[in-house]
Write a structure and sequence with these properties.
The chain is mainly β. The protein folds into three domains: 86 residues, Pseudouridine synthase, CATH 3.30.2350; 132 residues, Pseudouridine synthase, CATH 3.30.2350; 50 residues, Archaeosine Trna-guanine Transglycosylase, Chain: A, domain 4. The chain is built from five helices and 19 strands. Strands 1, 2, 3, 4, 7, 10, 11, 12, 13 and 14 form a ten-stranded mixed sheet that branches. Strands 15-17-18-19-16 form a five-stranded mixed sheet, with no helix packed on it. A two-stranded antiparallel sheet has the order 5-6. The longest helix has 12 residues. The protein is elongated and about 70 Å long. The termini are close together. The model has no long low-confidence stretch (mean pLDDT 92).
């Protein structure tokens, strides 16, 4: 069994717990394609069976979020799960909107201390909970859209964010607040899309049962944006690099009309790269 489940993760449940539930329902190895914090809700693609081999491909895909940031206070976790500490002013909507263009494009971002980032082989949240002092190196992330949607409370604003993989929305509120000369934290986060997977087509985790879960399984080949490689040379399925009339790139490979996996063409030759069927 292989494919994807586009699951709508509820707030309050970890991504690992969602995967655990899917494993129990399908009795098959699974893995989520991009962690969502327990506080967050929304799209969580889960790879089933050999589809988990595409983790790197889907991790790099664009994500779209709806987020709410509160100003004039902060927390140690940069979200509503931490201990709130008041401090700083509340900027106007005009000030907030004016500060957003500076965060577009490729920027450097320091992940939150309370995150799964690796620090000397340990998770950041493990060290932070123990009160260990440590530094996290900045990383480059890409922000395609950072737009003020509305003011939801006297001290809170809602934003639409489109960004590349690896972006921490909690770090965005920290840095935006700093640019405005204040402090802030995230009160709400919903992932509206992750690559081709959207909230509109996601199935709520609680709706899945042993009887219906297979009906929600999305075939792997339908979510891959690669062209088809027409190769009749059977040797390619046995690890042999074979000649092909194809441009360089990644292709969906079929065997006898059935999807097999991915192949990579280069210099007039191709080899099978990942078996996904």
């Amino acid at each position: 069994m292989t494919g994807f489940l586009n699951i709508y993760k509820p707030s309050g449940k970890s991504s690992a717990a969602v995967v655990g539930r899917v494993k129990w329902l399908l009795r098959t190895p699974c893995g989520h394609m991009g962690t969502l914090d327990p506080l967050a809700e929304g799209v969580l693609p889960v790879g089933v069976g050999n589809a988990t081999r595409l983790f790197d491909h889907f991790l790099s895909k664009k994500k779209r979020y709806t987020a709410r940031f509160r100003f004039g206070a902060t927390t140690d976790t940069l979200d509503a799960e931490g201990e709130v500490t008041a401090g700083g002013r509340i900027p106007s909507a005009e000030e907030v909107a004016g500060a957003l263009p500076a965060f577009l494009g490729e920027i450097e971002q320091i992940p939150p201390r309370y995150s799964a980032v690796s620090v000397g082989g340990r998770r950041g949240y493990e060290l932070a909970r123990k009160g260990v002092e440590f530094e996290i190196a900045p990383k480059k992330v890409v922000i395609d859209e950072f737009r003020l949607a509305e003011q939801t409370a006297p001290d809170e604003y809602e934003f639409t964010i489109v960004c590349g993989g690896g972006t921490y929305v909690r770090a965005l509120v920290r840095d935006l607040a700093a640019a405005l000369g204040t402090q802030g934290y995230m009160t709400y986060l919903r992932r509206d899309a992750s690559g081709v997977f959207t909230a509109e087509t996601a199935v709520p985790l609680e709706a899945l049962t042993p009887e219906n879960v297979r009906g929600y399984l999305i075939p792997t080949e339908t979510v891959l944006p690669f062209p088809v490689l027409d190769c009749a040379d059977e040797r390619i399925f046995h690890g042999v690099t074979v000649p092909v009339a194809a441009e360089d790139g990644v292709y969906k490979l079929y065997r006898g009309g059935e999807f097999y996996g991915l192949a990579r063409a280069e210099g007039g030759f191709a080899r099978a790269e990942k078996k996904l069927c």
